[in-house]
Amino acid sequence: MYGSDKGTDDSERTAFRRAEKKYKLYYDDTYKSSKKKKLPKQVDLSEVIDFKRILECYNQDGALPLGVNATKCDLDGPVFCLENRPGFYFIPGALSLEEQCQRIRESLKDFPQPPNRTNHNAIYGPIQDLFIAAKEKRVLVEDNEISASNVDSDTEPSVINGNSNGWKFVEENTVSSRRGTCKSVPASALLRKLRWSTLGLQFDWSKRSYDISLPHNDIPSALCQLAKRMAAAAMPTGEEFKPEAAIVNYFASGDTLGGHLDDMEADWSKPIVSMSLGCKAIFLLGGKSRQDLPVAMFLRSGDVVLMAGEARECFHGVPRIFTDEESEEISLLEKRFSSRDDLHFLEYMRTSRININIRQVF
């Protein structure tokens, strides 16, 4: 994502880039030439703010660390603020376990559905029912490479593109019999390579703007109501948050989100509502320049972050997610997704993080 660091001295990097490098996942190369499993290098996490621990202390005796304030709103718990980052709000454990599971199911089954767009559109066009296809171990093949006579008559491929040169899902054994003669990719691999999907008004990444002419599905009502409830703490007095667009980010082990600004919305006084699901991550909140030293904090499943006003001008990113059993912290999700029907969700979430960012565009 960042390109090569070869020949780049730490003194030449920005403060934000140095922090990204500090927390990024690197592997111990001690066993590079052996068959032993590579282990993640140890990272000094002593300076990472832990709002879960802050909440526990606050509930116990009202104590807060220097530079952290708490405010009350119409939520079950307090909302924390950083004195040196006006407009930034952290709500630990804001989403109930039931809400987390519902958002995870939607993020994998519903949100990537056409006409919503994903990172796969550029290569494969709109993909229908990707999660179901992965669950059924189906394979995506180029439509013009396999004629109808080569496909089992009992197999009804899911046509994805509306043209003859599109792609379709077929049974795995169909591709095996034609190995080497068609372009194909397992649905499970595509699911693992899913990096983003868009809800509501669609964002055109090539133009870095919203394209209101693109077809789209509305943001589900329940998610809208949840976003409004969370956004209230950061909204100007007397105004209500209007969820108009959302970007869903999907992280696997080793994935990062480089330092950036969310600056395409018209009114920065309205917050971005950011919901975390799945494996624990580190979030970096910088300043208005990449040279400003960022603050690092943990994000856990169910946490919500709000960024409004001045905080919208701050660089931010995710340099690391934790997928090892000791650090992933998804035991409650594992218990909830333990039924046979949910095992595919559990398998995915054991090594993944999902982030839903909801915005008011106009």
Helix/strand-derived category reads alpha+beta
CATH architecture descriptor name of the domain at 95-115 and 196-294 and 310-359: Sandwich
Quick one: biggest sheet?
8 strands, antiparallel
Count of helical segments? 10
Q: How large is the radius of gyration?
A: 22 Å
* Amount of helix: 10-25%
Largest sheet, order of strands side by side? 1-2-3-16-13-18-11-8
CATH domain fold name of the domain at 95-115 and 196-294 and 310-359: Jelly Rolls
The count of β-strands is 18
- Oligomeric organization of the protein chains: single chain
Distance between the termini: 30 Å
Keywords: Dioxygenase, Iron, Metal-binding, Oxidoreductase
Organism: Cucurbita maxima
GO molecular function, one term: ferrous iron binding
Protein name: Alpha-ketoglutarate-dependent dioxygenase alkB
What does this structure look like?
Residues 242-362 form the Fe2OG dioxygenase domain. This protein has 362 residues and is an alpha+beta fold. Among the domains are: 95-115 and 196-294 and 310-359, Alpha-ketoglutarate-dependent dioxygenase AlkB-like (Jelly Rolls), CATH 2.60.120; 121-143 and 163-193, no CATH class. It is built from 10 helices and 18 strands. It has helices at residues 15-23, 51-61, 97-110, 121-124, 130-135, 172-176, 187-192, 221-231, 331-336, 343-349, and strands spanning 68-71, 79-82, 88-91, 139-142, 158-159, 167-170, 184-186, 196-200, 202-204, 209-211, 245-252, 257-260, 272-278, 281-285, 295-299, 304-307, 316-321, 352-359. An 8-stranded antiparallel beta sheet has the order 1-2-3-16-13-18-11-8, covered by helices on one side. Strands 5-6-4-7 form a 4-stranded antiparallel beta sheet. It has a 4-stranded antiparallel beta sheet with strand order 12-17-14-15, with helices on one face. The model is unreliable at 1-7 and 145-165 (pLDDT under 50).
